[in-house]
């Protein structure tokens, strides 16, 4: 019962991780630059994401421009696009597989099949967390290096936006969920190896009859 509750808790964490992963991939605020200018009336907030760049004015106007050209993008943005999409796909596969493999569901067949499916789902979550953690870390490193570069003007410097923090949190949730799923299955298999089922050997009726026959001969 405790293992089933732990798996359900890990599944909830994985759900939050998947939603956060998809949200971080689509959000346009990976990099944020607030330029107040001469007065607050002309304040402009520039946001850059993986798929579009947006500008928000203090007057309430909001405009976005899609990034159509892939080859013109920096290498870290191209890598972030690829790895974040892979992370979303793997986490979605993990949700489907663990739904079948969890103990609280009636899918997946016998206990061994459910255990294997649960372990495979945990591996998907771990890979999804790694694929989500790498681009957010790389993207944050590029933002910090540009911010500390003295040759870049202040108006062109950015800070990490909400999408980066969402990506970090989602990757952590997916990693935790994957470790919990894999550990629960591993403990069960380890217990089966340490304490194998006892085999009871019963003498056959033929042996008993032969033994009885031999004793009668000696009497």
TrEMBL record:
GO terms for cellular component: bicellular tight junction; plasma membrane. Keywords: Cell junction, Cell membrane, Membrane, Signal, Tight junction, Transmembrane, Transmembrane helix. It comes from the Eukaryota. It is a multi-pass membrane protein. Residues 1-20 form the signal peptide. The chain crosses the membrane at residues 75-97, 117-139, 163-186. Belongs to the claudin family. Claudins function as major constituents of the tight junction complexes that regulate the permeability of epithelia. This is Claudin. It comes from Nyctibius grandis (Great potoo). The lineage of its organism: Eukaryota, Metazoa, Chordata, Craniata, Vertebrata. The gene is Cldn20.
């Amino acid at each position: 019962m405790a293992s089933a509750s732990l798996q359900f808790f890990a599944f909830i964490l994985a759900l939050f991780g998947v939603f956060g992963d998809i949200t971080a991939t689509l959000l346009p605020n990976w990099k944020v630059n607030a330029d107040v200018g001469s007065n607050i009336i002309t304040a402009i907030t520039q946001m850059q994401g993986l798929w579009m760049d947006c500008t928000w004015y203090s007057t309430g106007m909001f405009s976005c421009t899609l990034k159509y050209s892939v080859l013109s993008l920096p290498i870290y943005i191209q890598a972030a696009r690829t790895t974040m999409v892979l992370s979303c796909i793997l986490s979605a596969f993990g949700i489907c597989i663990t739904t079948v493999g969890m103990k609280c569901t009636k899918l997946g067949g016998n206990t061994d099949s459910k255990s294997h499916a649960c372990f495979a789902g945990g591996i998907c979550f771990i890979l999804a967390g790694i694929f989500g953690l790498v681009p957010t870390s790389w993207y944050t490193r590029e933002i910090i290096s540009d911010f500390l570069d003295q040759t870049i003007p202040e108006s062109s410097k950015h800070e990490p936006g909400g999408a980066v923090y969402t990506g970090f949190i989602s990757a952590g949730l997916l990693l935790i969920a994957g470790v919990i799923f894999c550990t629960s299955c591993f403990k069960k298999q380890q217990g089966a190896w340490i304490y194998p089922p006892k085999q009871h050997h019963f003498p056959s009726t033929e042996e008993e009859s032969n033994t009885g026959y031999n004793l009668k001969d000696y009497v």
